[in-house]
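Dear colleagues,

I hope this message finds you well. In preparation for our joint manuscript, I am sending the dITP/XTP pyrophosphatase (Magnetospirillum moscoviense) sequence together with its predicted structure, so that both groups work from identical material. I would be grateful if you could confirm receipt.
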Amino acid sequence: MARRLTGKLVIASHNQGKVREIGELLAPYGVEVVSAGALGLPEPEETGSSFVENAELKAKAAALAADLPALADDSGLAVDALGGDPGIYSARWAGPGKDFAAAMALVHDKMGDHPDRSARFVCALSVAWPDGEMVTVEGTVEGTICWPPRGGNGFGYDPFFVPSGASLTFGEIEAAAKHAISHRADAFRKLVAACLA
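The corresponding structure tokens are as follows:
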């Protein structure tokens, strides 16, 4: 078992939706969270070639800069008909203004009338301590792409992703229901077993 995570933890993200969601997942464990944005930490360049590499890079940078344990998430949407794109570039497809309506339209346009609508959200979570210790886990949730997008809950690509076995998008279901089945929840369960249980 890895080192137990206690006290203050930096969420290595400037994405408020992601910070809020991770904070809600951590709430039962008595961990005090602060975002990298609130601490004024710079966002490192994501040069990894996978979700895991990018999560580890961000966690390590935040842990060293803040001298506190840091949790980083690298997640995105992988669409089978697009060979796994947008993948690690999911946020970049939304452009500098983080326009996910445009990003969803871009995915839809690139898919065209392809019959395979299957996709998955992938989430890598990495915790780094300032002394270099690190724990990384990965979670997924399978589903399909729908068009047009539906719902105003969640963030990012949530309004056009329908998880397997459901009829509502992540943008339509309540936060608690999403937390129970999402890629982040899947990864988080593994993280809890590794360093919060």
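For the figure legend, we might mention the following. The two ends are 10 Å apart (CA to CA). The longest strand covers residues 134-145.

With kind regards,
E.M.
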